[in-house]
Amino acid sequence: MKSLAFQPIAQSRYNNLLFAAFCSLVLAVPSMAQTKWPAITQTNKPWTRWWWLGSEVNNKDLTTVMQDYQKAGLGGLEITPIYGVTGNDAKWIPFLSKQWMGVFDHTLSEAKRLDLGIDLANATGWPFGGPWVGEDDASKNMQFTRYQVKAGEQLKEKVVLQQEPLVRTENYKPRDISEIKQPLTANTNMQALSLDQVRFKIWLPLQRLMAYADGGGSLDLTSKVDKEGNLDWVAPAGNWTLIGLFMGQHGKQVERAAPGGEGNVIDHFSKTALDHYLSKFDQAFKGHDLSYLRGFFNDSYEVDDARGQSNYTPNLLDEFKRRRGYDLAQELIALTKKEKTDRDLRVLCDYRMTIDELILEQFTGEWKTWAASKKKIVRNQSHGSPANTLDLYGVVDIPEIEGTELLRIKFASSTSHVMGKKLTSAESATWLNEHFVSTLSDVKKALDTYFIGGVNHIVYHGTSYSPPADTWPGYLFYAAVEFTQANPFWQQFPALNHYVARTQSLLQDSKPDNDILLYFPIYDKYQIAGRDFLWHFDGMKPEFNGTPFEIAATTMHENGYSFDYISDRQIAQLKAGGKEILSAGATYQTIVLPAANFIQIESLKKIWALAENGATILAFQNLPKDIPGLGGYAANKALYDQMISKLHFEATSNPAVKKAVLGKGVFYLSDKLVSMLELAAIRKESMVKSGLEFIRSKRGSGQLYFIANRTGKALEGWFPVNSSLQNSLCFNPMNDVIGKPLSLIHI
Questions:
Q1: Which has the least CB within 10 A, 200, 484, 511, 570?
Q2: Counting Cβ atoms within 10 Å, is residue 150 exposed (0-12), middle (13-18) or buried (19+)?
């Protein structure tokens, strides 16, 4: 199976290329000087997640297998220790122990000799956690009690709450809480227990007791509750609802933890918890040369793939008041109502916004700062978290995605494009099929999807370290294609790696060339009730199924328009360039607002300023309707109304589209997105109507296209490329051939 890279160089509006596409190809449009393949670097090559089962490694065998990896064409390894092989307990090496650091030192030394990059997961398995994470630093949740008291009455019940015991295991074997010692560090068989979630039967600490009058008003009764839970208070006139907020232990455990890494998952909303967690690494790293380590890795959030949510942190109420300007304790009843008013939903939105900011600033940003202090980068999977994933990707060095849906993949690459990050990585080829069943053709198909989605740094999932002397099939990980020496495709594996390296050598040596910024309307989710307190954002589906946001993205993709998502925080860094919109990493032609119900006032102000300076803004279905949250709402809404009143829409040459002039720029409004894009003269690639998909970028003074045929059918014919350049070159990354695509080319 072959793939091609085309490089045109031009003078006509459309460059027509004749080829037969049976799989995928890369089409490029550079200057005449760019007629050679870039030299292959370590980063151009694909990397792989390197599972250390039980960290059962030794220096001699490490050298042997690393030489195999290097010969196969891998560029780097991400070390992630996980559970050990049953029966091999004596060979396990506890994570971050003196012995573990010894084999890690050897790994770094050999990697340098072999020119293999090394990243290290900042945990065993996932998420961050371990035996050194005590209850104070572990993930927390909110638990509530509710009481009714009438005028003149005193609460007879004690204001206490005992946590219900819970044990969940990774292998679904039933366990009774009596089998688990408290604290968890007292258990000496954590690998055998294989715990996923543990809650002990304990009395939970009261955070607040609030009384709410039926006629309005609230009282903080927390100080009137004694240590036994007795409330010293007689209700004044009226009927009162009392809400008790208690801090519970969420109980999430590190999944697939390696020996020495089992234990509580950290509180992701607390800098204190993160600092205590990372201090273990600081201590272990003392006296060791980490100069060759590229960086650290964080797997997807996955705290809440358990019973209940981690939705609280000890200083939440203080942080909320500081950030939102009012006291959440006074509004606890709003959080606990089943049927919520508009005001209640605004309180809920503010709560979610606060959690969003805490995980961004107290965890992701602080982790990045810690790594930078060691002169290391961080690679982060942001999906699954209860925060804006675009913003979480925005503060790290390499955004990483996983999955197979193109619109999901674009969440990571969009941030790289908008924020000017060179690399977007992907946990690649996860769960394609059972062990040794997936073919290299299956893998390549998956990789081409990532390339189309903007990924340019492939990280296979994955490669299990296996002692060379072990009998076939060696050590394996349960969720992987198994890019190991035991796989029958290993002898042909270098050919795939060469294809990836050649393709990525071009993709990494180019800059984004998308035209459209599609607003990510996260506040439309923050301000609607859900089954739980928090939403978790994993991509386009299922969170945004059927929404105007998904419809807009799908419509643009299917019609050949190139776009990136953008968040409110990222809108803040945009600059006016006349008709162009300038970001930290790219230049865009328009912003699409996909019928958002809510948008931050600062974002609206920035968009208005861009339009006044000449930008074109497209409102799909309707303009944003309101401002989210309760804090500062009155002033923000007044400013919103004032800004909206400046827009006076009139008819255009297309009866489906209305137009409003604002300064030097213009707003279009329509239910027909394509009609607006055509009026705005936004480029599109007609090849998509034939079933081809593409990603376009800038390379030097030319352009680069990666094109894939994912239809499963052979395509043959003339396919126009929307480029003003003329001379095209075809780069074939499978055989390194460079030629002009002026005749029929079989792929």
A1: 511
A2: exposed
Rounded Cα distance, 726 and 195, in Å: 61
CATH assignment of the domain containing 371: 3.20.20.80
- The pLDDT of residue 507 is 96
DSSP letter assigned to residue 690? G
Question: Are 660 and 625 in the same domain?
Answer: yes
Rounded Cα gap, residues 77 and 48, in angstroms = 5
Bridge partner residues of 7 (DSSP): 729
Query: For residue 84, is it within any domain?
Result: yes
Residue at 308: amino acid letter: G
Q: Is residue 280 part of a domain?
A: no
> 319 in a domain, yes or no?
no
Indicate the angle between helix axes 548-558 and 406-419, nearest 10 degrees.
90
| 226 neighbors 232 (Cβ within 8 angstroms) | yes
| 2's tokens | 């072959």
Owning domain of residue 726: 5-34+700-739
pLDDT at residue 15, rounded to an integer: 42
Which is it for the CA torsion 487, 489, 491, 496, positive or negative?
Answer: negative
Please state, in angstroms and rounded to a whole number, the distance separating the CA atoms of residues 726 and 11.
4
In terms of DSSP H, where are the helices of 465-547? 493-507, 523-526
Q: Could you tell me if 578 and 551 lie in one domain?
A: yes
In a shared domain, residues 580 and 473: no
Question: Measured between alpha carbons, how far is 234 from 154 in angstroms, rounded to an integer?
Answer: 5
In a domain, 222, yes or no: no
Angstrom distance (rounded) from CA 640 to CA 633: 10
CB-CB contact of 21 with 692 (8 Å):
yes
CA dihedral for 304, 306, 308, 310, sign (positive or negative): negative
| CA 496/CA 480 separation, integer angstroms | 17
Cα 554 to Cα 556: distance, rounded to the nearest angstrom: 6
- End position of a domain, from candidates 509, 525, 555: 509
Q: 208 Cβ partners below 8 Å, 6+ apart?
A: 220, 222, 243, 244, 245, 317, 329, 332
In contact, 81 and 55? CB cutoff 8 Å: yes
Looking at the fold, whether 546 and 489 belong to one and the same domain comes out as no
Note whether 444 and 558 are same-domain residues. no
- What's CA 2's distance to the chain center, in Å? 32
Same structural domain, 484 and 546:
no
Per-residue confidence (pLDDT) for residue 725, from 0 to 100: 73
Q: Show Cβ contacts of residue 369 under 8 Å, excluding neighbours closer than 6 positions.
A: none
Distance of alpha carbon 454 from alpha carbon 425, whole angstroms? 9
Question: Per the structure, how many domains does the chain have?
Answer: 3
pLDDT at 739: 78
Residues 520 and 427 grouped into a single domain: no
Residue pair 410/379 in contact by the 8 Å Cβ criterion: no
Closest CA to 204 of 312, 330, 356, 351: 312
What residues contact residue 63 under an 8 Å CB cut-off, 6+ apart? 106, 110
pLDDT of residue 29: 52
From first CA to last CA, the distance across the chain in angstroms is 7
CA dist 363 and 395 (Å) reads 11
Residues 471 and 518 in one domain: no
Cα separation, 316 vs 331, in Å, equals: 13
User: Is residue 313 a contact partner of residue 274, using CB atoms and an 8 Å limit?
Assistant: no
> Of 475, 509, 543, which residue constitutes the final position of a domain?
509
Task: Yes or no: say if 455 and 381 are a contact pair by the CB < 8 Å rule.
Answer: no
pLDDT for 709: 86
Is residue 409 within 8 Å of residue 430, measured between CB atoms? no
Q: Which residue has the tokens 């105007």?
A: 548
Q: If DSSP codes are grouped into helix, strand and coil, which group holds residue 155?
A: coil
With a cut of 70, list the residues of the chain below it in pLDDT.
1-34, 741-747
pLDDT at 31: 52
Instruction: Report the 10 Å Cβ neighbour count for 534.
Output: 19
Any idea what the Cα angle at residue 136 is, between residues 130 and 140, rounded to 5°?
85
Alpha helices, H only, 295-379: 316-324, 332-336, 342-358, 366-373
